[in-house]
Amino acid sequence: KMSKSLRNYPDVSEVFDRDGADAMRWFLMSSSVIRGGNLVVTEEGIREGVRQVLLPLWSTYYFFTLYANAAGGSSSVETSPAGYSATWRTDSTHLLDRYILAKTRELIEAVTVDLEALDSPLAAAKLRDFADVLTNWYVRRSRDRFWDGTNRDAFDTLYTVLETVARVAAPLIPLVSEEIWRGLTGGRSVHLTDWPDATRFPADAELVAEMDAVREIASSGLALRKARGLRVRLPLAGLTVVSAQTAWFDGVTGILEDELNLKSVTFEPLRDDSLDAFGITKKLTVNARALGPRLGKQVQQVIQAAKAGDWGLEGETVVVGGIPLVEGEYDLELEAADAASAIAFLADGGFVVLETATTPELEAEGLARDLIRAIQETRKAAGLEVSDRIRLAITGADAGDMEALTAFEEVIAAETLALDVQLTLSPEPEVAAALESSAGSQRTTLTADQYANSGVLVIDVWKSGAVHV
């Protein structure tokens, strides 16, 4: 119960000033209070909506404007007020474009049904899920296509999806949707436009299902990396996917290799003996505290059955001693006989096996990738544009690190838009501070804990006066 005298809810004026009116509106429209349920109004709950929906959509819009403006409008024929250009079209043949366009069609259809039924929480959940797919999958997987500013399909597809999503989201986040839509189109108001027509987007349920499965595999692989303390920029030998799904689209292997930074990905069909073939055992742990309120005295029967191995899977349901359990009442884990492997379940009953052992070659490549990230951060700190060419001077105290980086000199230059790279071994890399007098130089010191296996790396980045795009 909200009480003005007790002040057991955030100050509305502070919420509007800090998070915006759309944050409060989203919090209410996506909550159970719409269905007559209870609702506790908290600052954290309001900010969660900002993190899950408002920021992802706005960051995608910012990404589009940033790269479209850098491209100078070279990829389209219709110019917006912001100075970049794009064409509303849904006919791209690129795999990722086809996926996000088909996903947009499904979003329109689903949200239309929910809003016509006055069920805004369901509509909000679908929009939240789509915002995650758009930002954390489509845009992230498509960055290279926007880099040179000449990929018309990428620019036009993202423009089309953003313009459409702004209309779909308008009833739930009217102010942010208005800003995005007007910025994209130069139109009067998103609230004066027609509701999107789903039939203008291609339907491809098979591709959507397969790509969603790939996203699940990638998510499982990243979770395994995190659990083993293996940073994403460190390449690993491989991943084996054992799944009930046997037909995959062309390019799925490359996507997973790139997404999880792997040297290889192998697919195996799921069979009855798949776990045994990989030397994997299942471990079931019963949550007695969660079971107690539902089963009462039967809890001990379930615990004893679990210890005796009297349990199994019936579809996606765990049955212990003849008693089915629900999610939250148990933990089901996979254990591999090989300590150098990490295992995770998939929704279809399959699993993934990640090879976690590393080699000196993999470690060297990981160091180069860490360095690339550091250089990109230095570029940003120097205020450089995404298309600015630079020159690099890298000094290190560890001979092994410098030798490893030499093998990846061309990769470093290509990834950071460097015209030339100078790698220097020095017992006291701090002497690179002498380069501070270089015009426009920005210097950063990278410690061993952050980016290298040992020693210290010093990077000097300065904008090239010879080339500027």
Which secondary structure elements does this structure contain, and how are they paired or packed?
Layout: H1 12-18, H2 21-29, H3 43-71, H4 95-116, H5 120-147, H6 152-169, H7 174-185, H8 205-228, E1 239-243, H9 252-260, E2 265-269, H10 274-277, E3 280-286, H11 288-295, H12 298-307, E4 311-314, E5 317-320, E6 323-325, E7 330-336, E8 341-345, E9 351-355, H13 360-381, E10 388-396, H14 399-406, H15 409-416, E11 418-425, E12 442-446, E13 457-468
Parallel strand pairs: 1-2, 10-11
Antiparallel strand pairs: 1-9, 3-7, 4-5, 5-6, 8-9, 10-13, 12-13
Helix pairs in contact: 1-2, 2-3, 3-5, 3-6, 4-5, 4-6, 4-8, 5-6, 6-7, 8-9, 11-12, 13-15
Structure overview:
The chain is of the alpha+beta class and about 475 residues long. About 45% of the residues lie in helices and about 15% in strands. It is built from 15 helices and 13 strands. The longest helix is centred in the N-terminal third of the chain and has 29 residues, at about 45-70. The model is unreliable at about 75-85 and about 430-455 (pLDDT under 50).
List keywords for this structure.
469 residues, four-stranded mixed beta sheet, globular
Largest sheet features: 4 strands, mixed
| Portion of residues within helices | 40-55%
Major beta sheet, strand line-up: 2-1-9-8
User: Which descriptor suits the 3D outline?
Assistant: globular
Cα radius of gyration in angstroms: 26 Å
Compute the average pLDDT. 81
Query: pLDDT under 50 segments (min length 5)?
Result: 73-83, 430-455
First-residue to last-residue Cα separation: 59 Å
List the helices and strands in order: HHHHHHHHEHEHEHHEEEEEEHEHHEEE
- Provide the structure class: alpha+beta
* Record field, number of beta strands: 13
Count of DSSP-assigned helices: 15
- Strand fraction: 15-25%
